[in-house]
Please model this.
Amino acid sequence: MIHYGLDGRAALVTGAGSGIGRASAIAFARSGASVMVSDVNEAGGAETVAMIEAAGGTARFMRCDVGNGDDIAALVDGTVAAFGRLDCALNNAGVNRLEDDEYEDAVWERAISINLSGVMRCMREEARVMLPAGGGAIVNTASINGLIGNPAQPAYSAAKHGVVGLTRHAALRWATQGIRVNAVCPGVIETNMTTPLFENADMRKIVETMTPMGRFGKPEEIAEAVVWLCSDAASFVTGHPMVIDGGSVAV
Model:
């Protein structure tokens, strides 16, 4: 694993109680950042903090529902109170309801509120403290479903397309003010969200066959890209939706 030189910096990660968020929080800490771990799952968040501290890193936990603007404002303020600054953020919290009809109003509205509006709210609050401090780096978790069509999930697909558009907007808006904004667009990654896929042998085989590399991705493979995008090594990268999918979109 690479050390990306984030010593002395502070990072915030939403949806950090498991999966890509947890792997990213751990990767930020490994590269020297103090990390604010956030999730609605308090037990998962506490476990992530314990994993970081066991490896010698610094982390705190705050519960945050990204569907609630007050929660997000408190999270950002809490990060600054804990660490004195906010340099990096991964807006990762999301939902993916494979079993529900996303054309139903309640399902649609929840998916958009968390997966898209939540990202907007997070960026708004992060920029509120980053701009006076001279800048920072923000990464939003989108998906390959934000770049290609998905016949099964209209709300998820619409939200993730929106995250890509929002990322490009914010990158342009803050390009001269020191804030870089990028997105990661994962393919199928082995997380709690995709459990129904990889626990079903037939479905797993179908998805693996559709991925040119012949396997699911790992959360740590996304985390490496996230931390790189927040590091000085990516200082000229902004507005980029980085595809990490084992070749799926290239087909």
Remarks:
- The CA atoms of residues 135 and 170 lie 13 Å apart.
- The radius of gyration is 17 Å.
